[in-house]
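Protocol step 4 of 5: obtain the predicted structure for the target chain.
Materials: sequence only (see below). No template structures provided, no constraints applied. The aim of this step is simply to have a reference model before the mutagenesis design in step 5. Sequence pasted as it appears in the construct record:
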Amino acid sequence: MRAIQVKEYVKGPSDLIVTNHPTPTPSPTQYLLAIQATATNFFDLLQIRGKYQHQPPLPWISGSEFSGTILSIPTSLPNPHFSIGDRVFGASQGGYATHICCAESRLRPVPEGWDFLNAAGLMVTAPTSYAALVTRAGVKQGDFVLIHAAAGGVGLAAVQVAKAFGATVIATAGSARKLEVAKSFGADYGIDYNAAGWEAAVKKLTPGGRGVDIVFDPVGKVEKSLRCTAWNGRIVVVGFAAGAIEKVAMNRVLLKNVSLVGLHWGMYAMEEPERVEEVWEALFKLMAQGKFRGTVYTDREFVGLESVGEALGMLGRRETWGKVVVKVPQEEGRSKL
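Step 4 output (structure tokens):
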């Protein structure tokens, strides 16, 4: 197989190289997949530099999200869920490769009518956004929802989930192009969060200037968002893309009766596995109803593992929107996309 192997930590994505390796042999509990598309993530940028909280022992194959075709099934599972030839997507260490071995729990079937490219970016963003807004914030018909970084992968997923539940969405982003993208996915309003006084602009869009009911924050804007949150508002902390961990004036949380909650989707498989199935069942239903679609960045195309470095570089420089996904033609030179 061909893969991006990290033998030593690199300075940046431009240092990544594609090398040849033996095709991996799955354990008795694993599937072997031919990868057709692989998605990029911010944590990949940290991991290749040795800065992430989860660092595999060197050497290791980079990447984590992918879609592809089942080549072999586990020999020790009495009733494997998938068969040879099935189209699946998933997440497991080693996504920047032409092949990967993966446990059944890390895989899902490609939704009806979806291609590999869009399915490759589903595993992280879709359930994160759904669990944040539905499980943690209880989004409902009539809510006003403020979604920060709304043109990002989790942001565009959140826009669609909020709209599916009948909410009014106020999207924030850092450029006119990104606000345009957020609106194309259903956002009702767009606010540039680089503009001074954006909090007041958000409040003006809500009934009577009362503020928003829910704040979806993958960036680190809790402190400023409290200024435009309504009484009994809910703020969901999803991440810290801005790079700094905030210090929040807790008196504002008290005075507005605000619920401030976090969402660590990756821990649900261990702490509340039953919730994982509930979330995915609900997401597949939204997809079947046409209320949730892929969020792949389409302003340019990335083909081949050699383009992963460039894709990650653009992601790190905030030059993209949605999920940046790379097509992975198989070794015989034919891509099934």
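Step 4 remarks: Residues 332-337 have pLDDT under 50 and may be disordered. The two ends are 19 Å apart (CA to CA).
Proceed to step 5.
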